[in-house]
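Tokens for chain A. Residues wanted.
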């Protein structure tokens, strides 16, 4: 198998930005509980992502989960974020956009490449994610480009930033990559 990436925790300061207004001690506890994604078995394709805090998702509610994780990915590869099958089958929860793509240059974004995942409860009752639960999975994929590709831009922002003029990429609203 090819080794193409490494997961890391983002800095505490960057993580805290997702929880401004909360008691810093509570945020430190969550930060300390961040687990790097890992595969459950040697045959698993997906790396499980774990939630670092408890969250109750009411029926119809969407929530952005700050994972506290970033990923350095080799050029020519991406990380695709998918729901875990049990989340959908058992509880009718899904990622808001079904699949998220983490580009290799996202690691260099202004927000340290913080991966955030937006999930939605479409079940008939509240659903609880417990600290340490695996809630989505990331799978690495190799990709190609066209013969005459001339992309030369550089990423600064997160979700939705690559199709905006550069001055908009520095807008505070684009400082994280949320997987919807």
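Reply:
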């Amino acid at each position: 198998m090819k080794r193409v990436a490494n997961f890391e925790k983002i800095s505490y300061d960057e993580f805290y930005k997702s929880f401004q207004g909360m008691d810093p001690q509570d945020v430190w506890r969550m930060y300390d509980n961040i687990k790097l994604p890992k595969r459950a078995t040697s045959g698993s394709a997906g790396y499980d992502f774990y939630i670092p805090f408890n969250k109750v998702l009411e029926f119809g509610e969407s929530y952005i989960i700050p994972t506290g994780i970033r990923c350095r990915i080799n050029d020519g590869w991406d990380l695709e974020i998918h729901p875990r099958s049990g989340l959908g089958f058992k509880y009718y929860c899904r990622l808001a956009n079904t699949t998220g793509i983490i580009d290799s240059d996202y690691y260099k974004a202004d927000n340290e490449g913080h991966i955030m995942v937006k999930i939605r409860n479409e079940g008939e009752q509240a659903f609880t994610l417990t600290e340490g639960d695996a809630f989505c999975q990331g799978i690495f994929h190799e990709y190609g480009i066209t013969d005459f590709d001339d992309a030369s831009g550089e990423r600064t922002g997160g979700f939705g930033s690559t199709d905006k003029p550069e001055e908009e990429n520095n807008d505070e609203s684009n400082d994280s990559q949320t997987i919807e």
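The CA atoms of residues 111 and 175 lie 6 Å apart. The chain has four helices and eleven strands.
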